[in-house]
Specification:
heterodimer; A: 142 residues; Globin-like; 8 helices; globular; B: 279 residues; mainly beta; Porin; 12-stranded antiparallel barrel; two-stranded antiparallel ribbon; 2 helices; 14 strands; 8% helix; 49% strand
């Protein structure tokens, strides 16, 4: 009982003691397989999206080659790679598209499946997702 | 009557599974079903709402659980509905077998949980929910005899849950804190209020866990309890759990339980197993 309570306290402390994500950003680019790895990952994700009847209707009029390039640039830059994202601001590119919370999550799942298929380890997956999650309010319900 | 309403809910659940499954939420974000029917961990209600309903979806869950400790066994049938990931309605029927004393106790719990603000994952605010559980003990003879004051009562709680996608060790962590106003004896299985104390008091309930993978979580829960009856001291509860989410339709939870002394029988330890279907 006492020991269990102590372990719980340790778990809580562990969860609360934050490791700085900024310090890891430089190596995330490498962990994702650098530019080539990121391009393959985005390609796989777009295939998953095209297969997902929950969200594929959002992309029927999209230039997929251009989207692929923009996503690859953006992820590369976010992950600390030597790229510069040349696309629109998130709010600008998503306003009026009627993207719901479920749509956003469906895209996250498309990315998760792509990361699984590209053998990206869980920890690296989580670091990338943690970089993307703060964009939620710049994309959803605008 | 009670059985019939639960059966109706179960049937509704099954037919909705076939018709449409809510899947707007990410895996595991609906938590599992607690022994009182509300979404949470095993012994604590969390701020999360059951199922994967998002936006304008309806979702729901049906659950069978069993907790088996040295001298007691608790069986729970539960069902819940979730509208727009905003409000959850839940129903639980508990059967408490007094394995070594003989006999059984029963309780029905009707729950409503409302997501007040925030989100488990996104945005700056953690997910904050408020809930009420109406509990009725339908086998009040024994609770009455040991000093319980009434056979039905309300619990009210406020819960805060938050996940960190890339916490320590680059794993996703979840922390939940719940404050509950209650005067339930052994969560209501031994009635409500007692000869020692007969007013609602605030208790703390905590949970923390880590996802080893997005479909597998391990963690611990702690539940503080009141101590209203003179005939036996009531201890706080602790559990250590493993929850597996192979798909959005099914989850399986196993736990080790340390429930302390119950009704004078010392150091009740054992296991918990719960199977949930979500739709």
């Amino acid at each position: 009982m006492k020991i269990a309570g102590l372990s719980l306290a340790a778990l809580l402390l562990g969860a609360l003691s934050f490791t700085a994500p900024a310090a890891q950003a430089s190596s995330l680019y490498q962990d994702l397989g650098e530019q080539r790895g990121i391009e393959l990952l985005m390609e796989e994700m777009l295939f998953n999206i095209a297969d997902d009847r929950r969200i594929r209707h959002h992309f029927v009029e999209t230039d997929m080659a251009h989207l692929h390039q923009m996503l690859s640039e953006q992820i590369c830059e976010l992950a600390g790679g030597p790229c510069v994202y040349s696309g629109e601001e998130m709010v600008e590119s998503h306003t009026g598209l009627d993207i719901s919370r479920g749509d956003f999550n469906a895209l996250v799942e498309a990315l998760q499946l792509a990361m699984d298929d590209n053998d990206i380890p869980v920890g690296v997956q989580n670091r990338l997702l943690a970089l993307l999650a703060p964009m939620h309010h710049e994309i959803v319900n605008l | 009557m009670r059985y019939r309403s639960l059966s109706a809910a179960l049937l509704l659940g099954c037919s909705m599974t076939i018709a449409h499954a809510a899947d707007g939420g990410l895996l595991a974000t609906g938590g599992v079903t607690s022994i009182e029917g509300s979404a949470g961990g095993g012994i604590v209600p969390w701020a999360v709402l059951g199922s994967y309903a998002e936006d304008d979806e309806w979702g729901g869950t049906v659950t069978l659980s069993q907790a088996s400790v040295d001298d007691f066994r608790l069986s729970v049938m539960g069902a819940s509905l979730n509208y727009r990931n905003r409000v959850e309605f839940s129903l639980a029927r508990q059967t408490f077998d007094l394995s070594s004393i003989g006999g059984e106790l029963n309780q029905n719990i009707f729950g409503v949980k409302y997501r007040v603000a925030g989100d488990l994952i996104y945005g700056n605010l953690p997910q904050i929910s408020a809930g009420i559980q109406y509990k009725e003990n339908t086998r009040f003879g024994l609770p009455d005899a040991v000093g319980a004051q009434r056979d039905s009562d309300f619990d009210a709680y406020l819960a805060v849950s938050r996940a960190w996608l890339a916490g320590p060790f680059d794993r996703t962590w979840l922390v939940n804190a719940t404050v509950r106003a209650t005067r339930a004896n052994q969560i209501g299985l031994l009635g409500f209020g007692g000869d020692k104390s007969d007013s609602h008091e605030l208790v703390a309930e905590l949970a923390a866990g880590v996802f080893l993978h997005r479909s597998l979580a391990v963690g611990m829960e702690y539940r503080q309890k009141p101590n209203n009856l003179n005939f036996a001291d009531e201890d706080d509860w602790v559990s250590a759990f493993v929850a597996w989410f192979p798909t959005k339709s099914v989850s399986i939870t196993g736990a080790f339980l340390d429930l302390g002394d119950i009704a004078g029988l010392e150091s009740q330890q054992g296991y918990y197993l719960s199977l949930q279907a979500a739709f």
